[in-house]
UniProtKB/TrEMBL annotation, chains A, B:
It holds the Pfam family DeoRC. Residues 8-63 form the HTH deoR-type domain. It comes from Phyllobacterium leguminum. PANTHER family: GLYCEROL-3-PHOSPHATE REGULON REPRESSOR (PTHR30363:SF4), HTH-TYPE TRANSCRIPTIONAL REGULATOR SRLR-RELATED (PTHR30363). It comes from the Bacteria. This is DeoR family transcriptional regulator. Keywords: DNA-binding, Repressor, Transcription, Transcription regulation. SMART domains: DeoRC, HTH_DEOR. GO terms for molecular function: DNA binding; DNA-binding transcription factor activity. InterPro entries: Carb_Metab_HTH_regulators, DeoR-like_C, DeoR_HTH, NagB/RpiA_transferase-like, Tscrpt_reg_HTH_DeoR_CS, WH-like_DNA-bd_sf, WH_DNA-bd_sf.
DNA sequence: ATGCATAATCGTGTATAAACGTGCATGATG
DNA sequence: CATCATGCACGTTTATACACGATTATGCAT
């Protein structure tokens, strides 16, 4: 190692500070400032971006645009959900057709997506559609709204779902377990999620730590059918390892 | 490459800001400001246009005309809309299947309906469904969401509408005139409203005073097809009399 | 008004240097 | 010894500027 007076975490913490102060950082500049190679800085920025702490761009990184204050409704645990959401939206690219199911996690993701563009979102959840329709194209899946789930379900919704092939399906899970897979509380909800997930090119699931290793009554899909799992920074390592062993890419969100 | 102190994404973000502030940007001006060639600026503007962030024009770019969705306008005169809504919901009875179209007036009505029970509401507007789904049964009409209108429209939505026979159809009008009838700003919206209105047992329209005697470009239904019109207390007597002469029941909302 | 001349602006292709990611070796840490 | 952060070498990708022919707006003469 060449002469650096900074530990990795310390360095990254300082980068976050600089980012908050000036809104952007340049890779070359940071390399000089911390006396490390640009490779190291790039590695840092990559890691931080995956954790949702910055937006990686050519030449450096930009601060995450602070989520509008009014959108930060104190429903459940907005900071935790927000961190997961920021990590998740990184995988959404312009031109994609993205499905969001009815879940509070996806409402948080919807708020983040609002700042993207060129994306089309499919959803069966009215609140998610409400948030998104001002910012991006929305395709609404209709049917009888199940108030326990918060979205349209039933034959009409299933029929709609069977005519779509999303590029990415983002599921908010009720339970995530290596053995039980992704599970949901309600039968029709599980059916619907399974239908749309199987028709999607990629499936991504977000899960708060307390959902890991638990199973709800109704199977949605097997764990291996989920390509990517976004978890919190403190997710249980043993559970995560079991899931990763099934070929699921694990993404850890940043600390709050 | 000549020296620029701005990262690409940052530069584009600033252009978006300038665009929002002044409504237009000039290619040459931006090139000087960011110390890059005009080619680079043109490429930026082209990319941004593809992403829907601006409208490309000869010499620069223009801001996208802000499509204020009805949810925002709904708050502009909440008391007036609330008064109309309270007058309108008096005609909703338990057991009814009620259709609410996408309009700010109907968002206000939805808030009032929340306190009723035993009602089922059909709507193509996500914000209305969001407000109602916790309180009453909701049937969501799906399809591609038209952000100008704030609800699902198009063939899918029309198909859904053709399978329903609501007891009551509540329309938020863009224009209400004895001769022109009920009119709307957008063709597909008018088509959809007409379809669902013709299938409903009763049609009720709410109109703020400034909508009376005016016509929007697209016909929805003739005035006589509307059984009941809810207006504000200060509605123009002459206009109201003409409409009443066609057999439309007039309901005046209370003062604020 | 209509047509034409002219200059500004445009899009594309090409060249180039910076920035990138990856695999691997190294030295520190525990 | 095992782990891990780091730096270096490699081929690849990306952002940019410049060159050139095409397009468009504008002014001027008819």
């Amino acid at each position: 190692m060449s002469g650096s007076d900074f530990l990795l975490q310390e360095r990254q913490a300082r980068i976050v500070e600089k980012l908050a102060a000036s809104g952007k950082v340049l890779a070359g500049e940071l390399a000089r400032e911390f006396s490390v190679s640009e490779d190291t800085i790039r590695r840092d920025l990559r890691e931080m971006a995956v954790a949702g702490l910055c937006r990686r761009v050519y030449g450096g990184a930009l601060a995450i645009p602070p989520t509008a204050p009014f959108a930060e409704r104190a429903v459940d645990q907005p900071e935790r959900k927000g961190a997961l959401a920021r990590a998740a939206v990184r995988f959404i690219e312009p031109g994609m057709l993205v499905f969001l199911d009815a879940s509070s996690a996806n409402l948080a993701i919807a708020r983040e997506i609002s700042s993207l563009s060129g994306v089309t979102v499919v959803t069966n959840a009215p609140p998610i559609a409400s948030v998104l329709m001002e910012a991006v194209d929305v395709i609404l899946i209709g049917g009888a709204v199940d108030r326990r789930v918060g979205g349209a379900l039933g034959s009409r919704a299933l029929g709609d779902a069977e005519r779509l092939r999303p590029d990415l399906c983002i599921l908010g899970a009720c339970g995530v377990d290596a053995e039980a897979g992704i599970t949901a509380f309600h039968l029709e909800d599980a059916e619907f999620k399974r239908t749309i997930a199987r028709r999607s090119r990629c499936v991504m699931t977000t899960a708060m730590s307390e959902k890991l290793g638990t199973a709800a009554p109704h199977d949605v899909i097997a764990m291996a059918e989920c390509g990517r799992l976004v978890v919190e920074h403190d997710a249980d390592a043993a559970i995560i390892n079991d899931i990763a062993a099934l070929g699921v890419e694990i993404v850890r969100a940043g600390k709050i």
